[in-house]
Amino acid sequence: MSPASTQDRFDPLSADFAADPYAVYATLREAAEPLYHSGLDVHLLSRYADVDAAARNPLMVRTREAFLEPETLAAEHAAAAAAMPNHFRYVQFSLLDSDGTVHRRLRKLLLGQFAKRAVERFTPIIMSHLNHLLDGCLEQGEFDFVADLAAHVPGWIIGHVLGVPPADRPQLKLWSENIVQFFDAGRTAEHAALAEANTAEFADYLKALVANHRQTQSDDLLSLLIAAKEARQLNETELISTCMLVLMAGHGSTIDALGTGLHALLLHPQEFDRLRREPALMSTAVHEMFRFESPLPYFHRYAAEPVEIGGKTYAKGTKFGLLYGAANRDPEAFVDPERLRVDRRPNRHLAFGRGAHLCLGNNLSRLDMEIFLTLLLARTEDIQCLETEPIYKRGITERGLERLRIAVRPR
Ligand code: HEM
Question: How far is the centre of ligand 1, averaged over its atoms, from the C-alpha of 241 (Å)?
Answer without folding.
Answer: 15
